[in-house]
Amino acid sequence: MAQVLNSVLGIFAHPKKVITIDESKLENLDGKTAHILFAVAEAVLGENFLAKAPDFIAVIDDYLNFQRRSQREALTQALLVAESPAFNLLVAGKLRAFSHMSIKDRQNVLDKIRNSDRQLRRNIYAAFVNVSASTYYASPKVWPDIQYQGVSVDHPEILNVPPPPVPWRPNDPRPVEK
Length: 178
Prior knowledge:
Helix content is 49%, strand content 0%. The chain has 178 residues and is mostly helical. Helix 2 packs across helix 6 (103-114) and helix 2 packs across helix 7. It is elongated, with a radius of gyration of 23 Å. It has one domain.
């Protein structure tokens, strides 16, 4: 059912294309959803976020490989619904597609979704922010800005010694493996 709804919503979605996306490398997103995702991330992270996270779309596309099919479809559906002018008219009073709005207007739409009395809208907001922010802060180019030095390479001493032998139990009838 979700695939049918996503197909119908996809027919009516015509996102603004402001970046070049190689659709042949995408496995889970298509060109439309990738451009909508970029517009969402721009509203969450601000303009020029690609300077610090140049592989943003590719990382999210790869991340979706590790999600359940229903979760991938739900994110796609949320992106397509957000792009719908009718949805934006109901939420923010703007009869424009999400990606065609200014960044300030997109942020206002997200703010209204965040403060909605409907759980589904708040979940959409949470998904947009979590996906955008976690992908952005996973980029090593962002780490100096947040004073993160990267993963420590020092291992605890316990990992450097062989594990203790498993003691043989005299009353255990199972054979001892060597």
